[in-house]
Design a protein that fits this description.
By secondary structure, the chain is an alpha/beta fold. It is built from ten helices and 17 strands. It has helices at 2-16, 26-38, 98-115, 140-143, 150-153, 197-210, 257-265, 289-297, 310-313, 337-357, and strands spanning 44-46, 49-53, 63-69, 92-94, 123-129, 157-160, 168-172, 176-183, 187-188, 224-232, 238-239, 242-250, 271-274, 282-283, 301-304, 316-319, 334-336. The strands form five sheets. A six-stranded mixed beta sheet has the order 1-2-5-3-6-16, covered by helices on one side. Helix 3 crosses helix 10. The longest helix is centred in the C-terminal third of the chain and has 21 residues, at 337-357. The protein is globular and about 80 Å long.
Length: 360
């Protein structure tokens, strides 16, 4: 266990030193591949994703995937230190991606190492993906899609590694972003000519704010909706003939994104165009052995307001990892070495208890 912890912290420091924003993960993927290969874990590169299967992988057995992402967002403004310098503090790893999602990645690698040679009633697969932060097409969407590797594509369960303080999210909201456009007729403001697109947009925004979705989730509550951007006008004396605004929606499992779009479009004169209909909400299956294992181990659960690779897997899953979500995408990101070592032990303990429940 001490070796796992030391190797994990050292690997995380090496990851932080490599700029690895979404769509630019080549170098960090190479690092992870080489390190797994040095530990004789037989990794595979699939684009900028790294996948490894347990030594005794058996297609007749169900598979659990340990899933974490290697990419980061751009550094936030306000860093007081170099975002690519992990530091030398023996208790803390600093830098971009240390908390989101490097801590989960190295802890899951350690847990996978622990089980790699063991004969179990389930398969264990490690999936380290790219492009998570930008919902790109060549990350988890590829791995879990029809053209993905069989051991990932056909898996039954997934543990999504994200900073949750090692509590388990058993549901997470989806994400639906709508680009709205109100169209009017331009004219001279002094003569009150034209049709003001800004007023049309304001009426639609008022209707969206007042709208209540009738179906309320028992675990996630109401669908969340906020208008977050608006743009109109070219000059002070010209009635705007176009006004655009953006709607950020956080769906629950009670609605498909298509249903939400249809319901909101019926309220608005503005044209609503979704950026992506695939970012659906997710929830662990009510009869899942994942839930039974969480209960046995006394691990706290919650519903997550943020999205992750979960929505791209289409699998029975939970989201659980070291670090805290509040540190993600913020300046001076960090993770404690103690959090990493604790998560390695908890991942191992979880899997050891989990495969017994799969036989029930």
């Amino acid at each position: 266990m001490n070796r796992y912890c030391q190797d994990s912290v050292e690997l995380l420091r090496s990851m932080v030193r490599i700029p690895s924003e979404s769509f630019h993960e080549e170098e960090v993927a190479a690092l992870l591949y080489d390190r797994l290969n040095s530990w004789n874990l037989a990794p595979r590169r699939i684009g900028n994703n790294v996948v490894a299967s347990c030594l005794h992988f058996d297609r007749s057995l169900p598979t659990l995937v340990l899933d974490a992402h290697m990419d980061t967002v751009a550094p936030a403004a306000g860093y007081s230190r170099d975002p690519y310098d992990p530091g030398t503090d023996e208790d803390t790893v600093y830098g971009l991606g240390s908390n989101d999602d490097g801590g989960s990645a190295v802890a899951m690698i350690a847990a996978f190492r622990h089980f790699y040679n063991k004969v179990l009633p389930i398969n264990i697969v490690l999936a380290l993906s790219c492009e998570e932060e930008r919902s790109g097409p060549r990350g988890a969407r590829l791995l879990y899609g029809p053209d993905g590797p069989e051991e990932v594509r056909d898996a039954r369960w997934v543990i999504i590694g994200e900073p949750t303080g090692m509590k388990a999210a058993t549901s997470e909201r989806g994400l639906l972003v709508l680009d709205a456009v109100a169209e009017g007729v331009s004219g001279h403001a002094a003569r009150n000519e034209g049709v003001n697109a800004l007023y049309i947009a304001m009426e639609d925004i008022a209707a969206l704010r007042a709208h209540k979705f009738s179906r309320i989730s028992r675990i996630m509550g109401e669908v969340g909706l906020n208008v977050t951007q608006i743009c109109a006008g070219t000059a002070h004396n010209v009635i705007p003939d176009r006004c655009s605004f953006v709607v950020d929606i956080r769906p629950t499992e009670q609605y498909t994104n298509e249903e939400i779009l249809e319901e909101l479009q019926a309220l608005c004169r503005s044209r609503l165009t979704p950026r992506n209909l695939a970012n659906r909400s997710s929830a662990t299956h009510p009869d899942s052995p994942l839930l039974r294992t969480l209960a046995d181990l006394g691990i706290g659960t919650f519903s997550s307001p943020t999205t992750s690779n979960w929505m791209r897997t289409g699998k029975d899953a939970i989201k659980m990892g070291p670090g805290e979500s509040s540190r993600s995408h913020h300046a001076d990101e960090y993770i404690l070495c103690e959090e990493i070592s604790d998560s390695i032990k908890k991942y191992i303990n979880f899997v050891e208890n989990f495969y017994g429940h799969t036989l029930e």
